[in-house]
Amino acid sequence: MTKKKSEELVEDDLAWLDGDDPFGLNETIELVSFVCVDCKGIDDVPAYIIGEFMVDKKPGEPVSLECPYCNGEMFKAKNDPSE
User: Does the pTM of the predicted model rise above 0.85?
Assistant: First the structure.
């Protein structure tokens, strides 16, 4: 059984998706952990979102987010207690 000409055209049109990742679907997303001051809930936030919140901050000023669990204030979780 032979393929229809329209089926061949569709396969050829989508061939460019095989080699590259033009939409960035295979990229890894860096996550940053934030902890809530009130409920101690932890939420992982993509780094590019944090970058958006840093636009109007002064250098060294911490980014705070709203907790999705209790609407409290969240700050970046510290990996090392000395931080």
Answer: no
